[in-house]
Amino acid sequence: QLQLVESGGGEVQAVGSLQLSCAASGLAFDGYPIGWFRQAPGKGREGVTYIEPEVSSTYYTDSVNGRFTVYRDNAKNTVYLQMNSLKPKDTGVYYCAAKTYGGNWYKARGYDYWGQGNRVTVSS
Question: Of 93, 88, 94, 72, which Cα lies nearest the Cα of 24?
Fold first, then answer.
């Protein structure tokens, strides 16, 4: 089993910044691609960004491209999500997840291991 624990959420005003962390324990973390998802109130889970394990190629959904940055430190078993220029529409519960199946990175069905979720609230 791979355990993922997020930290770093909270409340911030628009155009502010937050950094989320996703710390892993258990299985070999550096072999897993990691995705970040978010779920706004009353909406489904949306893929935000994705980072591959070794080459560290990254992908972003259009709405966060240029504002969010994902990176990983495999020595610390941690993936980070730096969120800048935050907007109220970024509000939601953010989850990190380890991808275990094929398919598009932004689809939640391909991920077996999930963190507990961390709330981010952006006020206008």
Answer: 72
* Identity at 35, one-letter amino acid code: G
Q: Flag residues of the chain having pLDDT under 50.
A: none
**pLDDT on residue 102:** 86
Residues 6+ positions from 55 with CB-CB distance below 8 Å: none
